[in-house]
Design a protein that fits this description.
- The protein is elongated.
- α7 packs parallel to α9, α16 runs parallel beside α20 and α18 packs across α19.
- The protein has an eight-stranded parallel beta barrel, surrounded by five helices.
- The chain is 34% helix and 11% strand.
- By secondary structure, it is an alpha/beta fold.
- The protein binds ligand G3I.
- Ligand G3I binds next to loops.
Length: 589
């Protein structure tokens, strides 16, 4: 790839304008074309950022025996179904950014609060994600009581109790633990490079061995990781840090301390766009020679000093990822790549590395609207191009339900489950072919469209008493136009809902209509469509809400809808309402 230096504004920056095999050469006459980001496509940026197919980052990585995952926070994931759905779709691993730190777990010296961490562990489990712990021993993220409570007399007991309690709680559920985080800094001037932390002060360098042994005892199945930052660049300072970390790892290994992997955080900066990474490559190889695996644990790009122009900035961030990943993924011992966040909607960099132009930072693969960016593309390309890892990784099943793996409606069911719109049964099945009652359908509609309850008075259905479990959902959906009762004043809550009624309900609730019913001629069984339904089914058909499996041209309007079919129709209706991303499926009419 030929690179050109282009002067623009205050900054000189390298822009990878390159020649790609078969793509011909794209040269810029001295000025970077200001592309309207709306019209820009990923091939008119001077090179092609296009990725093949629509596979998720998780699947692209898994295809090469790699794990791709991301950091997340209980406080965002538990309240943002769209964000949760993106994590479920893109990440094969979840690591809490803060929820497993001392400060977040321990409100007082003798109390643990696992509420947030347990929620995160369960979220990972139900969405087929590995769970990663961060971090058991660090000098930051400590509770306010730590300083006046922990001392040289009780430090070891406090450390052991913390690790036994926390790592023990998730034993068997944890892919890996950052047992010790950021123990090395050259700033403190020690010959062993160790950071002057309370742990070092109270327990000496052995605190690291003590921590790893305690973690191994608490959770023999977890991969035990030493995690650190600033290991990436070509600078001599970084070279010295890498050497100190390597010495620490060698010491731990020679002590027989149960350490399994190095975590390199990879908070990458501007220099990364043209780093050769020679030193990093050698370091990773030396770490691998110790018999250790390597995880990239907190990857993101600090775009603080990048130009304001979004097209240029996004491209530079993308190329930092491309350049870095092409270096680290060449090392077979690298088994995982974790980004410190998934979407620009939530990143620590907003507060910690804000831009001078006060523009929102854009460090992650998905933007704040959860749309993939060029960074997503270069990460996807890096996974697609990565050498195959030996040893197949076993990812948890991605579907929250055992019985929909490979089902034609799996993607719809999964997406609605990730949005907490539908749920399965206690035995973790979904029963996709079971029927749906009108009351159950009303409950799904209420969650999917959370219709604002009309303020008109409740509708009195003779067969829906106030103490009926579905009373509120039936009231809400009836008053918001999704559902109606029968002329005789009943609702028939227990009646299995036919497919035509589901479509009429969705079209009605979304206020869709169509007086052109000619579109119905697409159905071989058009004659079976009940007269009351023709207008709404025509509208639903025109709006791509109808999904017919296995035969697209067979509507089967009077057959009772299955749970899978309701999921597909409701998902398509959410797409129509702009509440969900389109999913390509051969069964949409
Ligand atoms: O939640 C409280 C809020 O209630 C309170 O009002 C506010 C007042 O400042 O603090 C909030 O807690 C903050 C927390 O992030 C949640 O936003 C803490 O002060 C703040 O220190 C904490 O920062 C985290 C930092 O580690 C320190 O724990 C960042 O989110 C987190 O991204 C960052 O992650 C670290 C890794 O753990 C280790 N590697 C470096 C990485 C980046 O610094």
């Amino acid at each position: 790839m030929t690179k050109k230096r282009i002067l623009t504004g205050r900054r000189t920056f390298l822009l990878g304008l390159g020649t790609l095999a078969g793509m011909g050469t794209f040269t810029v006459a001295g000025q970077f074309k200001r592309l309207n980001s709306q019209s820009q496509t990923i091939t008119d940026l001077g090179r092609n950022f296009a990725v093949a197919g629509g596979a998720s980052l998780r699947d692209r990585a898994a295809n090469k025996g790699l794990i791709y995952g991301s950091q997340g926070h209980y406080k965002f994931l538990s309240k943002d179904p769209e964000l949760a759905a993106l994590y479920a779709q893109e990440s094969a691993l979840l690591v809490p950014g803060n929820d497993l730190k001392w400060k977040d777990l321990r409100p007082s010296p003798d109390r643990f609060d696992f509420t947030k961490a347990d929620w995160m562990a369960e979220f990972a489990r139900t969405h087929g994600m590995l769970f990663r712990g961060h971090t058991l021993v660090w000098h930051k993220g400590l509770p306010s009581w730590f300083k006046e409570t922990v001392n040289s007399r009780n430090a070891e007991q406090m450390l052991l109790e913390h690790i036994a309690t926390v790592a023990g709680r998730y034993a068997g559920k944890m892919h890996s633990w950052d047992v010790v985080n950021e123990a090395i800094t050259l700033r403190d001037g020690r010959s062993d490079g160790l950071r002057e932390t309370p742990w070092l002060e109270f327990l000496g360098p052995e605190y690291i061995d003590i921590a790893f042994r305690a973690a191994a005892e608490a959770d023999p199945q977890a991969l035990l990781v030493y995690n650190d930052n600033g290991l990436d660049s070509d600078s001599s300072k970084t070279e010295k840090k890498r050497a100190a970390v390597l010495r620490l790892l060698e010491r731990l290994k020679s002590n027989g301390t149960p350490i399994h992997a190095l975590g390199t955080q990879a908070h990458l900066g501007e220099s990364a766009i043209d780093s050769k990474y020679t030193g990093l490559r050698k370091f990773l190889s030396d770490v691998a020679d110790l018999g250790l695996k390597i995880l990239v644990t907190e990857m993101d790009v600090i775009d603080k000093s990048f130009p304001t122009d979004l097209v240029v900035r996004d491209r530079m961030v993308a190329e930092v990822y491309e350049n870095y990943l092409s270096a680290v993924l060449d090392e077979p011992a690298v088994i995982a790549v974790v980004t410190w966040g998934l979407s620009d909607r939530h990143t620590w960099l907003s507060k910690k590395k804000p831009r001078e132009d006060n523009m929102p930072v854009r460090p992650l693969p998905f933007d704040a609207k959860l749309k993939p960016k060029l960074a997503h593309n270069t990460m996807a390309l890096a996974f697609d191009r990565a050498p195959m890892r030996d040893g197949q990784i076993v990812l948890p099943r991605q579907t929250p339900f055992y019985d929909i793996q490979g089902h034609w409606a799996q993607v719809y069911i999964q997406a609605l489950a990730a949005k907490n719109i539908i749920s399965g049964f206690p035995d973790e099945t979904f029963r996709p072919n079971a029927s749906v009652t009108r009351a159950e359908f009303a409950a799904i509609i209420t969650k999917a469209f959370t219709p604002v309850q009309q303020n008109n008075k409740a509708i009195a259905f003779q067969d829906v008493p106030q103490n009926f479990w579905g009373y509120n959902a039936i009231q809400t959906t009836s008053q918001s136009g999704f559902l109606a009762g029968y002329p005789n004043g009943t609702f028939q809550p227990g009646q299995q809902i036919p497919r035509a009624q589901v479509l009429v309900s969705l079209a009605s609730g979304l206020k869709l209509s169509s007086d052109d019913t000619s579109v119905l001629s697409v159905y071989q069984d058009v004659a079976q469509i009940p007269a009351y339904a023709t207008n709404k089914v025509a509208a639903a058909t025109q709006q791509k809400i109808v999904v017919n499996y296995p035969t697209v041209k067979l509507l089967s309007p009077n057959r009772n809808a299955t749970r899978a079919e309701v999921a597909a129709f409701v998902y398509q209706a959410l797409v129509n309402a702009g509440k969900a991303e389109p999913i390509s499926s051969p069964y949409v009419v």
